[in-house]
Structure formats: structure tokens, C-alpha cells
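2024-03-11 09:14:02 DEBUG pipeline.ingest accepted 1 chain
2024-03-11 09:14:02 DEBUG pipeline.ingest length=467
2024-03-11 09:14:03 DEBUG pipeline.predict start
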Amino acid sequence: MATETSKADHYNSQLFLKNVLRSHFNTNSPLLSTLNALQILLVLVLCTSTLAAFSQSIVKTLPGYAGDLPFKLETGYVSVGEWNDVHLFYYFIESEGNPREDPLLLWLTGGPGCSAFSGLVYEIGPLRLDTEHFDGKFPNFTLNPFSWTKVSSIIFLDAPVGTGFSYADNAESYVVDDLLSATDNYNFLLKGYIIGNPVTSQHYDKNARIEFAHRLALLSDKLYESIKHNCHGEYVTIDPNNAPCIKDLTLVTKCLANLNLAQILEPNCAFASRNSRPLHFEKDYFDGKFPNLAYNPFSWTKAASMIYLDGPVGSGFSYADNAEGYIGDDLLYATDIYNFLLKFYNYYVLSDIWANDERVREALQVRKGTKDKWLRCNETMAYTEVVYSSLDYHRNLSHTPLRALIYSGDHDMLVPYSGTHKWIESLGLTVDEEWRPWYSMRYIRDTVGFRLRFATVKARKKLNLTN
């Protein structure tokens, strides 16, 4: 009898949620169809007995893409919080395969404060910004043949509030921390999770960078053995009286200072090497009167065209026609150089140009007056980090029937794969499959109970996890 009651309660709860969704969503909504087919994999959050509210629009065309979109796109807002005063913007793309059978994924970009649109056009989505043919005015899209939407439906969610097109009705609701953001995102709790190069424990993640740097031949054996001995394997919490350890850490810092830590194969564009110049002053032979120039045989112009820009206005030979023109800030400076730099190449700023165009906002049905300027990553949010390690959360999840995939790009030194591997081992899970090379994840067998799979991904110029 108890079993039958449980089944009936389960059915009634599903029916109730479906009816709620139908009342909030257009009956032609691809997202609603997917939710129905997946038997409501998403769980609606009840915030003080108030159901989250929804609004959505089906988007068939986008500025920058010629013709109708070859996939189903829906955009809208999910209103959450105690008074439904936080409005999280989402892009939903229905699976191009079999949406009734394929999984439904929720994508959150890190930061905090980076828009999920970044994941859509720079990482796993069906569109790519065409940097190769950008004319400096308005960017166009190309299709991504390796999009994850080939095999899954994806919700790209702008969270926490203040990210992308997400907004709040009052200033107080923009003040958020790790736990409040997680509560808002609870609307999208599902049957498993996928995280890439995840910041999990500041100690594990940062401490692993030394070993990682040595594994990739960025540190010599001699220096690595010395720092390991002098610092006793602890590189985050340093004894200020341990002079040999501090000396070794200083040497390591110098070795790694000019690397792009997120992708060590890419140049650190903020670093201007002395060898980038075709000419340099001959300081060794300066007579105190007038300097001479000498040719630099290691100039970057041996292999690349270079633009040296005097900016902002007032720097070098740059000038303005009037006094007001010399008054500016970071945003004005960025605006001044948009048309100059973007003509040549700027990978991320193309998304800023696209998302701040009024035609785009109309196509996406962004509510007018809710967002003055869209930023790919909003670094001015009133966000407080209060969770310094999510390890206990992973440990708790290991006692659930969820399935997890954790992947690490093996050339990311911000969150090294070696540190991720160590905290996974600390969970004390039973190993049912040994370390091996992988080329496709399609044949993974289904299992009962918690299952965590850890994979490293070989570095590529443009990372593609499905290829």
C-alpha cells in the first residue's frame, strides 16, 4: 500500500509540475517539450512557497547569421528569489539529434560573472563568431560542426544575477554570494553534473601548480626538488621564516610570470616582451647626449605583423582636439580603440559588439531598460565568495545516485588536472575502471548508484571536447 501511495504521489507531483510549466510556457516552447519528454528532469525551486516565474520567446533568426537558424533556440527569463525579483536570462537550444531521448544539460560559465553566452559561441554551442572575416563593424556567425547540441539539449543560464542579461528589480538583490547564487540555480538541479577545470579547493588547486609546472617542463628538476624539499610540499600557506622556501618560490614566480596560466600554449597578451621590438636603444654605448638605435635580431616581427598603439589619449604622440577629449576612463578608452583593434583580431570583444547591438536585443527579446551594457564577464558585481572549498559538497553527492563527469584541459595551470585528480582521490571512491586513453565517450555503460568519471582533454588551439 505504501508503495502504491508513493507511486501515486510521484505521478501527481510530476503532473502538477507539468501543469505549472504549461501555464508559464507557450505551448510551442521547445524547452517545455523537452521537459515533458524528459519527465521533468529539472526541479522547480520553491522560494517561501512561491513558484519561480517564466517568460520565453522562440527565436528563429539572429543578426549576424544569414537566414533561419538551423536549430531551435528559445530565450527568456526565470524569475527567482523570495519575491521573484531576480530575473535570470537563459538561452535554450534543443538537441539537433533526438530531443525526446537526448539528455538535457545546464551550462553555467565561471567567473563568477561571465555570461553563458560565452559557452554558447566560444565553447560548446552551435554558433561560432567568425573572427577570420570580421570587418571591424559587426560580427557574423559560422556553424560549429562539433556542437554539444548535436547530442543534447542545453540551457545556457546567465547566473548569478548581474551576469549577461540577468538583472534584479532592486539594488539589494544584486548583492549575492556563493550560497545565494546556488539557491537561485537550484531551479535547474538535474540527474548528474559535468564540470570542467573546476575550482574546488583553493588549497588543492593552487598547491598543484608547482607539480604541474614541473610535469610540463616549465621548472627544472633541480628547482622542483629544491622547492619540494624546502617547502615540504606546501606552496600556499608559507612559513614567513622559511627563507629557503621563499627563495625557491621567488624563482618559480619568475619562471612562470609571463605565461598564460589558463592555456600555457597561448601567449600572455598582457605581457610585452622586450624581444617584441624590431629596434632597441643602445644603452651600453649611450654618450649622454643623443641615443642611437640598434637592430633587434629576436624581434617578433620576424614572424608576425605588429601594431604599437599609443593609448589612452595623451600617451606618446596621441592627442585630442580639446580639453574634454583628454578626460576618460577604462570604458571610454576601450570604446576609442574598438574600431582600431577589432579590425585586426580580438577574440572575446566580438561578443560585446554583438550583444550590445539593439537588433540583437530585439531578436533575443531582452527587456528594455534592464541592462545598459552587456559584458561577457562582469567584474564589478557585488559578489562575495563564502565557499572556499566545495569538496564536502562533492563528498555528499557521492552518496547519491547522480552521475558526474569531471574533465580537465591538461594545459590549464589555473586549475591543474593534477590537483583535481588529488581531491577526487580524497573522496575514497572505489575504482571500477583504471586510467586509460579515450577517444570517444559514446560507449560508457549505464550503472546504478553514484558514478564519477574523470577525464583529461589534450590541448588544442580551439578546444573541442566532442572531437
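2024-03-11 09:14:41 DEBUG pipeline.report The chain has a mean pLDDT of 75.
2024-03-11 09:14:41 DEBUG pipeline.predict end
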